[in-house]
Design a protein that fits this description.
The structure is a single chain. The chain is of the alpha/beta class. The protein contains 10 helices and 6 strands, in the order βααβββαβαβαααααα. Strands 2-1-3-4-5-6 form a 6-stranded mixed sheet, sandwiched between helices. A hairpin with a 2-residue loop joins β3 and β4. The longest helix has 45 residues. The radius of gyration is 30 Å and the shape is elongated. The N terminus is likely disordered.
């Protein structure tokens, strides 16, 4: 993928995981608001199309509420992109941001503020309209190309973070499953005469200590390859107090 400009810094984007490279995961899909598209200069739309193509994003033009929605790594990230800041007409921008933040869990507002007056206007308006810090996150930029590059970086970074979160969760679930199996085998093999093979067979056929305790000898023989003596031993272990209180049980 193409390299991004590095002449500006953003805390969200400085994470190494956010860098879009050829070795990264597949980029995703970008949906552009058709109304927003028609309000922009054709050369800027061409820039966006080329930039997305160079970074392996598929571009679709659709009638959506935000200006952009990126689907990356199973996560949807929405953007409002204000390319022309009008100091005399800012209420609609903040009203729209408040409305969309209720619809999208991940919403960013990118603002093109090339002049000091525009930047001051934004800061005053931000507090005037009582915006909540980080909800949504506002991203001021000095030119529209920089703004769109930031949008793509943010979307990609969010997608990578989501994938890492999923991987971490799956790993934790796998570890928990392994630990549960080890505990299961440890308990079942404490029954006299029951070995690891028998414990694994019971786990595959029944799956829980509670299920084994309720299972009949006939059911155990029907669903596993345990011997009749071992099946009888298991039934007695869970139902005969004289048996399960035997000192031989560890």
């Amino acid at each position: 993928m193409a390299n991004f400009k590095s002449g500006y810094a953003d805390p969200v984007l400085e994470n190494p995981c956010s860098k879009v490279t050829k070795s990264s995961v597949s980029a995703g899909v970008c949906m552009m608001n058709t109304i927003w598209r028609d309000q922009q200069h054709p050369s800027f739309i061409n820039f966006i199309s080329s930039f997305l193509a160079a970074n392996s994003f598929r571009l679709n033009f659709v009638p959506i509420a935000p200006d952009f929605i990126f689907n990356c790594g199973g996560l949807s990230v929405a953007f409002i992109f204000v390319t022309k800041w009008d100091c005399g007409n800012v209420e609609t921008i903040f009203s729209r941001a408040k409305k969309l933040k209720a619809q999208f869990a991940h919403l960013y507002v990118t603002l093109n503020l090339p002049t000091r007056d525009q930047n001051d206007s934004f800061l005053c308006s931000y507090f005037k309209y009582e915006m909540q810090l980080g909800r949504p996150t506002f991203v001021p930029v000095q030119d529209i190309e920089m703004g769109f590059e930031k949008i793509v970086k943010i979307a990609h970074s969010c997608g990578v973070s989501k994938q890492q979160e999923v991987k971490t969760k799956l790993k934790a679930e796998r570890n928990q499953s392994v630990q549960q199996l080890e505990n299961f085998i440890r308990v079942v093999t404490s029954i006299p005469g029951i070995d690891n093979h028998d414990a694994n067979a019971l786990n595959q056929a029944i799956g829980s200590i509670e299920g084994i305790a309720k299972a009949s000898k006939e059911y155990i023989l029907e669903t596993t390859d345990l011997s009749a003596d071992n099946a009888e031993t298991i039934v007695r272990f869970f139902r005969d107090s004289k048996f399960y209180l035997c000192p031989k049980i560890i």
